[in-house]
Input
Amino acid sequence: MKRIAFLTAALALGVIGAQAQQKTHIDPARVDAAVKAAFPTAPADWAPRLTPDETMKQCSASRNDPPKNVAAEIAAREKAKIEYPADGNYIGDWKKGEALAQNGYGLRFTDYPPTRANGGNCYACHQLTKKEVSYGTLGPSLLEYGKLRDYKPDAIKAAYEKIYNSHLALPCSNMPRFGANKILTIEQIKDAVALLMSPDSPVNKGE
Output
């Protein structure tokens, strides 16, 4: 009997807890006030980084799990922001791409005002080569990325688009919108694509 009573109480608490969680409402005005209070001395040109755009508002409102119609709206909006290379070439220098992947410089308080180009910090979220022992797992492994896609032109273009604006491929992605938010230049993105898609890259040689 005691066990039954315990289980009943636990179930009741679980239901109450779930109901309370569903009813929780966070006032957006309080969130905005807290963000502004956290950065009282932020330079004026940081304002866009502290103010969510429409995509971020929709992602936050849906806890990064938007319904299909909203996801489609986000993907269409973010696709429109992509700038493509003028010469139509999506691949740069994979050696520069590897240096970019290792570089975490940029967008931190300690990096302001900037003294050099931003890095991609790709290893913070992805495994790219077998020899790299320090990498994050927030994103998928990218080992043999190009090889698995047969280095096809459409896959190369898709890689460029994902790096430029990840929300095109996966609305509310955790991956930064490197091109759309001007974190990386078009040339840097091409170098990152080369790291992923060049047959000679250590990503595809299994090194």
Summary: The chain has a mean pLDDT of 88. Residues 94-205 form a domain with the Cytochrome Bc1 Complex; Chain D, domain 2 fold (CATH 1.10.760.10).
